[in-house]
Amino acid sequence: MFLSKTAARMLSTAPKVYKKGPIPVEVEAGKDYFYCACGYSTNQPFCDGTHRDINKRYGTNFAPKPFKATSTGEESFCGCRRSEDPVLCDYTHLDLPDDVGGREPVVTDFKNYKVLSTEAHSHDTTLLTVQAEDEKGETLDASYHFSWKLGGKTRPYTPVAYDPATGKVQLLIKMIPGGAVSPKVKDLKVGDSVELKGPSPGEYYCEGKHSVVVLLGGGSGLTPLLQVMQDAVKEQRNIELHLLYSNKTTKDMLWKNEIQKMRVAHPEIIKSVTHHITREEGEGG
Question: Structure pTM?
Fold first, then answer.
């Protein structure tokens, strides 16, 4: 089963397999080093503070592991984070399944993205399309997110579309009255710049572990599930997906037409889509 948002974050406690092999490093006797425990550091095999972002996003408790070199020379640090030794490689990576492997490091710096368009998607959501102004992005497996900084506040958003070749990102922004970011979306104009950080990888996807997966989500919690569906269709993965999507009313349903098109075009992968409505049309509250 595939759980979105809070439930999935609570289960995302395993460190990333950065590399299926040792990471050789020259060390100095008596010097203290701090090994990256989460696997997302851009300064492998040592900590660069990225675990703080990971802990905040997923509710994990990663912390760097201290290592004092007893002699000068090369040490082989664990790249897969599955070694019985807390820091050094013991060749456990040789026993890892073929479908377990590392992904690109998390992007830790904010950069500017140019607004290409904004359009209403539903009565309370806006589809925002932006593009990186400089370097392009990294290719990641589902699921991943971008962090948006606006007015000193930062909020994570899971894109409904992302093209690393062009740096183009599409975000579905739900308008939340009094929110830190969403109310300001209506003021954005084509050509404006926004600050995004990402893509930052998650640990949701379980393709290769299960042949049948149920995707559960409600409202804007659909977006990480969309990534899984899009990835499964694009890569023609050997998996059956069943989507159960809940909303207050039919007008709150997001990406309905796109989901239906995926289901019709790929019935062997998108096996079923079930919509659950919790309120009668016109009912308030």
Answer: 0.61
